[in-house]
Amino acid sequence: MKRSRSSVVSDGAFLLLILACFISIVFTSGNPNLYIQNIIFLNLAFLIAVVTYFTTVTTGLILNILFIFGYGTFTLYQTVVVGGLIGTQNYFWLIMTPLFTVATWLLTLGNRQLQQENDQLIKANESLATVDARTSLKNTLSFQSDASVFMALSVRYHIPLTLMVISVKYWDELRRMIGEEQLLEAIQDLSKMSQVSIRTNDSLYLLNKENPMWGMLLFTDLPGAMIVIERLRSRVDERNRDEFANKYRVELVLKMGAVAYDAEQISNPLEFIAQAKKQVEYDV
């Protein structure tokens, strides 16, 4: 499987950070006489790396410049005033502290790129998916594809085609009254009930999952769709008395409407939905 560039950057930066930590710990523990001094510099290197992680690489570089200036001043003091010698100790932290910053910045950069790629994949999956994951119902994308075929068949073979649209009355109020989990259960229950109410050659779609709206493509005329509406309304009334009132503590009331396909008035699937939604508004 081919790895993305951002994944390679993230993994490489993580390994570089671990390697830098290992080298710093070994160096710090290797000279007991300068143990406290090395611990202080190691903590400063970690602090600059943490600040870089939560801000930007520019902030990290500015802090590194300040550290180098301060450490240079400290080295100069040790050499001129105290009389110490310049050795490996003086160069080590001048190299390792910026290395910690660079490794942290690369790790942050790789992780952000991976997050962006993940968000893009999620959006692409949502736009290309034809089935809703929660209810296993076909979505609007699938409806447009199927409706185009059914509309063509209706015209060619003079088969009556009707779109029935279903929504839940007072859904915004119900959202505030019951929890999110129960809302998802209600959508699933209503979807299953709607599937039972139609024939096997009819199709059910979840057209909107935020403010639930279902669509049914029925191979029947408008009077036949009205029979389905009454059948579904009766089933919901029965479930409200027997189950829904106890399960959700509220009654689920449906708004339904249907429109027969007319090639002269409806030119595409989205117009088909728009016409059906107008009929739903009349169901008060």
Task: Write structural notes for this entry.
The chain crosses the membrane at residues 12-29, 35-54, 61-85, 91-110. Residues 129-279 form the GGDEF domain. GO terms for molecular function: diguanylate cyclase activity. With 284 residues, this protein is of the alpha+beta class. The chain has two domains: 5-127, no CATH class; 140-281, Reverse transcriptase/Diguanylate cyclase domain (Alpha-Beta Plaits, 2-Layer Sandwich), CATH 3.30.70. The chain has nine helices and four strands. The chain starts with a helix and ends with a helix. The mean pLDDT is 81.
Query: What is the CATH superfamily classification of the largest domain?
Result: Reverse transcriptase/Diguanylate cyclase domain
Number of helices: 9
Instruction: Report the radius of gyration as a whole number of Å.
Output: 33 Å
Report the end-to-end length measured between terminal Cα atoms: 56 Å
Instruction: State the domain count.
Output: 2
Quote the CATH topology of the largest domain: Alpha-Beta Plaits
Could you give the order of strands across the largest sheet? 2-3-1-4
What percentage of residues falls in helices of 4 or more residues? Answer: 55-70%
Give the SSE order as H and E letters.
HHHHHEHHEEHEH
Compute the number of strand runs: 4
User: Regarding CATH, which class of the largest domain?
Assistant: Alpha Beta
- Mean pLDDT reading: 81
> Which consecutive residue ranges, at least 5 long each, have pLDDT under 50?
none
Give me the CATH architecture of the largest domain, please.
Answer: 2-Layer Sandwich
The main sheet comes to:
4 strands, antiparallel
Beta fraction of the residues? 5-15%
Outline type: elongated
EC number: 2.7.7.65
Pfam families: GGDEF
GO molecular function: diguanylate cyclase activity
Protein name: Diguanylate cyclase
